[in-house]
TrEMBL record:
It comes from Ruixingdingia sedimenti. It comes from the Bacteria. It is a multi-pass membrane protein. Keywords: Membrane, Transmembrane, Transmembrane helix, Transport. Belongs to the binding-protein-dependent transport system permease family. It is found in: Cell membrane. This is ABC transporter permease.
Amino acid sequence: MAVSPPSPAAVPAVPAPRLDRLGVIVALLAMAGAGVLPFAAFKANRIVPGDPLSILGALPSGQAVLLYGVIAAGACVAVLRVRNLWRLAAGLCVIGALALMLGAAASFLTPDGNRVARVSPAAGFWLLVFAFALMVADALARLRPGPWTRLALLVLIASAGAALLWGGVWGDVSILREYASRGAAFWAEARTHVVLSLGSLAAAAVVGVPLGLFCHRRRRLRIGVLNVLNVVQTVPSMALFGLLIAPLAWVAAHVPGAAALGVSGIGFAPAMVALFGYSLLPIVANTVAGLDAAPETVREAARGMGMTPRQVLFGAELPLALPVILTGIRIVLVQNIGLATIAALIGGGGFGVFVFQGIGQTAMDLVLLGAVPTVALAIAAAVVLDAMVDLTGPRKARGA
């Protein structure tokens, strides 16, 4: 007796795997970085263009296959809708593997005893790092870690990077060879860059927060002050640096003691003044916005308790406005870290010295020596100040 096959309705449907839209983009970028673009470039010296090499050409076959496998596994995790913690771990693992294999490629390609040849990361390496950094950022956004968790993750990543640099893994990579011949100058310019960024921020906070309080109390003057600061903000940085040369040179020549304090037409002084000018608008505007956002009921309750206007300001309004003020300070710090690079064009120092020296010498490895720490410093500053904003905000909003 023949048995009839089960009807289609009786066969359970196998659910199709759900795909993550951003993960598909990450996987496509990873495919382009690993299969189309070069992973590293070998140069006979620091200024020649160099020969682009794929992963198979830059690494021994075993390491190349291993790296392809790690990238493929990371792309699969990105595409599928898996737990966000797994996505975060997979993205960090792929980025770590890329960093380790770049150091291995530099050691493999550089002839023994050759101190002139350079092995640089190529477009494929940077695209792969960008793709999986995007995956890490997306996983963190979905996980919504608290401020202390974000700070701990920053410390962990910084420690891993320090171990990579000081452990000798990247000893033959071009950017480290540039650093080897400029170590003392690098740390001197790093100090200058930090002083420019933090010094201008501190001066702007000392002036900007009281000015914001004044604008909050005197609403008729608010529009005029903010419009003036808006005009300063719209002036291109190079133009502002140039505009400051003549007046500061006059001050150095005619004001007793100004030159002894370091004031001059070019150098550190105009860079500091320009960064100070750019810093005022976000701090003043956020101070005004934070104070305006304080609920009127809070002010009435404070006055009903017998508080003086000064006590209302420092005991109720400013604590409520502090997260918004810190957000303005965060914007300023990240902005100043980037703008301080341009200050090197007028002798202000900072990491921009290496950037513009590299451009002038057609040495992209020297450009990276100035650009990479600038980006790392800006990201670290953003993470730290974002955590501070969360810690000063309402407890229920922390981690959001």
